[in-house]
Amino acid sequence: MATPKNPHAGFSDAVSRVFLEIGFGGGEHAVGQAELNPDVGYIASEVFENGLCSLLSRLVPEGEEENAVPPPHFRIWPEDARILLRDLPDQSLDQAYLMFPDPWPKARHAKRRFVHPENIVQMARVLKPGAVWRVASDHPVYQEWVTEVMGNQDLFDAPPPATERPEGWSPTRYEAKAFREGRFPFYWTFTRRP
Ligand SMILES: C[S@@+](CC[C@H](N)C(=O)[O-])C[C@H]1O[C@@H](n2cnc3c(N)ncnc32)[C@H](O)[C@@H]1O
């Protein structure tokens, strides 16, 4: 498990950068991004047990799960990412991902949406100046919400989203589900202001 107070030290090999993914689901995006960025220490967080099993099955050969050690540049945070965020030092992350977060479309549940003023302040605190936070969503309510909330803050540059997956982004299970069901994802790239 990564060490919240000193994320670089949580990896068994030295890493030059640290990335965090919040809510990795089946883990395909986390594995894809870790492979694309071999110099990076990748922290993948998820609260859903099936997701944790799915990621482990991608990382560890079948039958070796019990004594398995994750790859040296990969760590799993099997709890609420907000706990980790709260404990991470200032400017300790080089990139973050929030891919297809739970949309909580009912207005009375808006407080549960991850893109929320309180979490935005935490994200801004832990990301280095110039670091990128990638967010994707296919849900119209969430798309409108992100546009509004990110339009009302000044910690990140928040240009309009791409409507096709940008190069260098990895596919996810929920993205595939969105395409199958005829929805159109937005892909935002937010940059931490200096
Ligand atoms: C809609 S799924 C998307 C999964 C994956 N990112 C994808 O695109 O296929 C959202 C995931 O975020 C996880 N999640 C929600 N809140 C979380 C939190 N606070 N910390 C970590 N994971 C969280 C959920 O358990 C769920 O697996």
Automatic annotation (TrEMBL):
S-adenosyl-L-methionine binds at residues 21, 46, 80, 102. This is tRNA (guanine-N(7)-)-methyltransferase. Pathway: tRNA modification; N(7)-methylguanine-tRNA biosynthesis. Its EC number is 2.1.1.33. The keyword Methyltransferase applies. InterPro entries: SAM-dependent_MTases_sf (IPR029063), tRNA_(Gua-N-7)_MeTrfase_Trmb (IPR003358), tRNA_methyltr_TrmB_bact (IPR055361). Substrate binds at residues 106, 138, 172-175. It is an enzyme of class 2 (transferase). Gene3D superfamilies: Vaccinia Virus protein VP39. PROSITE patterns: SAM_MT_TRMB. GO terms for cellular component: tRNA methyltransferase complex.
